[in-house]
Sequence to fold (120 residues):
Amino acid sequence: QVQLVESGGGLVQAGDSLRLSCAASGGIFSRYAMAWFRQAPGKEREFVAATIGSTYYADSVKGRFTISRDNAKNTVCLQMNSLKPEDTAVYYCAARLWTYSTSKKDYNYWGQGTQVTVSS
Fold:
């Protein structure tokens, strides 16, 4: 059983940066594809980025967000630059074994989420 705990959310202005972190425990971290999803009010949870070997991004964040992982520390981070009001959402860390997916249905483990609010 894998436990995920996110941190780093907050309220920022458009154009600012924010760094989210996710600490994992309870599994062999290097075996898991780690992803970030987000859910805005009234919208479906959507894929943001993932990492397992390589990195993968949604088109909406490509060039602004960077996902990284530290297998020695069992952490995955999401560096978010040039934030926009439309990035406002609850951001979730997720994990699944071996391969990444852009579908939330394919992830077995989820964190509790951290709120990111970007004001204009």
About this structure: The mean pLDDT is 97. The first strand starts at residue 3 and ends at 7. The radius of gyration is 13 Å. The chain is about 0% helix and 55% strand.
